[in-house]
């Protein structure tokens, strides 16, 4: 018996040792073989290498070197950086594998006062200082065989949702011999910010964040707003809220399309961004409130009415009002927050757009019997209404717009793709403009001539039109912060995603389309929003009725009290005064009740969610545990009874 007990003990010890060895072996094997393997169960596949990235990596023809600088030892006490660095390294290794040997990955740890730290600084990387005075480096530098260099100075948390896009864009820029050329015709201060040229001359310019993205991705060529031909080197022409274009310039754009050029056009019935005050408190000099492209849109297959603005009660943005001490925010139906349900998710341009923030947008309708296909990309909801632009300029109050709102039950198209053969909007080249009179300077034009007239497009056109220019305004879609001396963008909407995806698509490079906005910064509670909007509409209607009732009661009460003071009030008048006072008190109490009920439905829903999250799950687990215990007890009792 004693020997038997020793054998069992030894057996258990041996088994424990073997299990420990097996555990360590499996872990070591998995770390080597399955280092980058994982199961991605997230809704948007946030941690899965996309097909677009694989295509970018597979298309590399010349070797590319990626140097990942990471201060691993110094980052030991910073769990967020350590976790993020593991994600970056895994993604880089997956991209290296997809490149089939054309990417060389170097992981470098720049220790303090080392040659590696000097190298990181010389390549433009920025270190984050710690409390101990040390500097953590966490960046990436890419080089190619022709001395091209791309760098991510520091992987910030704010850009984590764009990590795969940033890496793929770096690789594609290094793999191209030259960046594609984007021609821009605009009257918006894209490159100087709202301060305009004067602020730029003082060194105070802050370019729009979308322009910064465009400049990083493409070679930008600004075209004067009066020219005779779009330069042949321009791959895509972006026309963004221009000044009224004269006939030769419109003809130059028309012929660019006839030659097979692609156009991204933004027009606006009322441009909020153009009216933004600069440092002197006034809009940028030479601003234009309204933009149009004359006969071009009609020839392309889209009708546009610059005198109308599309409002939407369902898609209204919340804005600060401060007009009512009880409510600091209101729905502003003229500024739209367009959700994913109102974009075409089947089109590559809008496939990854979850939200667009727009201001005073117009709309398009298809031209009858047009040769192009009119495909809506962004639309309003059925709870929309058209407003005259002159009424919009008067600055109506948000609450007044909601009270007087009459939905048209029609979806208006804010953005559309126009594809197919196009007929020129002109019968031939325009006549030479007459010389300027009274000594006025003649319009300055490019020297390049228009060339022979082309009546029919040489290939199917590919044009995207958008009836809003406020999509570029930083106020609508991004929050910016300063980090290590640089502006860092924290997107709250996908305005930049749309613009960049549209240009990428028109450039013919669709590989990066699927990489935008992998993680969404705004996940709205749609049920809560619907309850809030419904409660607020009911509040406004009841508030208006009660305020009128209170006003009438106060007026009648004042009149009776005045008459009673001058001539003496009899018993009937006294009773009437008391009745009006009761009505006044009851109406005021009802108004307070309405104001208190404004968030009742939302709070009730919140209480239900708290119950489900906090109480229900533990209760269910407790019930399961009790049932399991009862079943186990019964099985044990049955075995005992059977053995007896």
Characterization of the model:
By secondary structure, this protein is of the alpha/beta class. The chain is built from 16 helices and 21 strands. It has helices spanning 2-33, 51-58, 79-98, 115-122, 163-175, 196-201, 209-217, 247-258, 295-300, 389-393, 398-403, 474-477, 495-507, 526-567, 571-597, 600-643, and strands at 64-70, 103-108, 127-129, 135-144, 149-152, 181-186, 219-222, 236-240, 262-266, 302-304, 308-312, 316-324, 327-339, 355-359, 364-366, 373-379, 384-388, 413-420, 461-466, 478-483, 486-491. It has a seven-stranded mixed sheet, sandwiched between helices. Helix 2 packs parallel to helix 5, helix 7 (209-217) packs parallel to helix 13 and helix 14 (526-567) runs antiparallel to helix 15. The longest helix has 44 residues, at 600-643. The chain is flat, with a radius of gyration of 33 Å. The two termini are 26 Å apart. The model is unreliable at 436-441 (pLDDT under 50).
């Amino acid at each position: 018996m004693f020997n038997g007990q020793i054998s069992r003990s030894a057996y258990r010890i041996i088994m424990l040792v073997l299990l420990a060895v097996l555990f360590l072996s499996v872990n070591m094997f998995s770390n080597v073989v399955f280092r980058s393997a994982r199961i991605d169960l997230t809704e948007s596949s946030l941690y899965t290498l996309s097909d677009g990235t694989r295509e970018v990596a597979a298309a590399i023809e010349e070797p590319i070197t990626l140097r990942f600088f990471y201060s691993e030892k110094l980052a030991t006490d910073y769990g967020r950086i350590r976790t993020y660095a593991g994600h970056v390294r895994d993604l880089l290794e997956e991209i290296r594998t997809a490149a089939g040997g054309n990417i060389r990955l170097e992981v470098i740890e720049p220790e303090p006062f080392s040659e590696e730290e000097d190298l990181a600084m010389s390549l433009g990387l920025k270190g984050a200082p710690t409390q101990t005075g040390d500097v953590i480096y966490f960046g990436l530098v890419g080089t190619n065989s022709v001395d091209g260099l791309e760098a991510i100075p520091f992987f910030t948390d704010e850009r984590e949702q764009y990590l795969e896009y940033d890496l793929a864009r770096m690789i594609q820029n290094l793999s191209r011999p030259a960046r594609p050329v984007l021609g821009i015709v605009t009257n918006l201060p894209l490159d100087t910010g709202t301060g305009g040229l004067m602020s730029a001359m003082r060194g105070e310019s802050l370019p729009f964040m979308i322009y910064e993205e465009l400049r990083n991705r493409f070679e930008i060529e600004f075209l004067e707003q009066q020219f005779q031909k779009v330069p042949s080197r321009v791959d895509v022409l972006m026309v963004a809220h221009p000044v009224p274009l004269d006939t030769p310039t419109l003809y130059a754009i028309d012929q660019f399309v006839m030659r097979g050029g692609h156009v991204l056009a933004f027009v606006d019935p009322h441009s909020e961004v153009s009216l933004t005050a600069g440092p002197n408190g006034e809009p940028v000099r030479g601003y234009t409130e309204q933009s149009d492209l004359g006969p071009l849109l009609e020839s392309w297959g889209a009708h546009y009415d610059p005198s109308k603005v599309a409002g939407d009660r369902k898609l209204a943005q919340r804005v600060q009002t401060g007009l009512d001490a009880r409510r600091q925010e209101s729905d502003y139906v003229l500024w739209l927050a367009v959700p994913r349900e109102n974009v075409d998710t089947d089109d590559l341009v809008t496939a990854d757009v979850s939200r667009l923030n727009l201001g005073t947008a117009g709309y398009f309708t298809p031209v009858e019997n047009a040769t192009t296909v009119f495909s809506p990309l962004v639309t309003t909801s059925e709870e929309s209404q058209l407003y005259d632009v002159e009424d919009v300029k008067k600055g109506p109050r948000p609450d007044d717009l909601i009270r007087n709102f009459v939905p048209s039950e029609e979806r208006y198209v804010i953005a559309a793709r126009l594809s197919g053969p196009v007929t020129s909007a002109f019968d031939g080249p325009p006549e030479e403009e007459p010389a300027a009179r009274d000594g006025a300077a003649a319009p300055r034009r490019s020297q390049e001539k228009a060339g022979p007239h082309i009546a029919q497009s040489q290939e199917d056109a590919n044009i995207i039109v958008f009836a809003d220019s406020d999509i570029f305004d930083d106020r609508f879609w991004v929050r910016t912060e300063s980090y290590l001396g640089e502006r860092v963008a924290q997107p709250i909407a996908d305005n930049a995603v749309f613009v960049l995806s549209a240009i990428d698509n028109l450039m013919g490079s669709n590989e990066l389309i699927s990489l935008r906005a992998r993680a969404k910064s705004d996940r709205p509670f749609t049920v809560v929003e619907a309850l809030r909007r419904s409660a607020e509409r009911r509040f406004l209607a009841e508030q208006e009725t009660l305020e009128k009732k209170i006003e009438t009661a106060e007026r009648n009460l004042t009149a009776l009290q005045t008459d009673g003071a001058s001539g003496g009030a009899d018993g009937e008048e006294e009773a009437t005064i008391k009745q009006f006072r009761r009505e006044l008190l009851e109406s005021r109490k009802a108004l307070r009740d309405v104001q208190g009920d404004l968030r009742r439905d939302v709070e009730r829903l919140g209480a239900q969610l708290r119950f489900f999250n906090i109480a229900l799950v533990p209760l269910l687990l407790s019930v399961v545990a009790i049932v399991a215990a009862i079943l186990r007890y019964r099985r044990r009792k049955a075995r005992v009874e059977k053995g007896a």
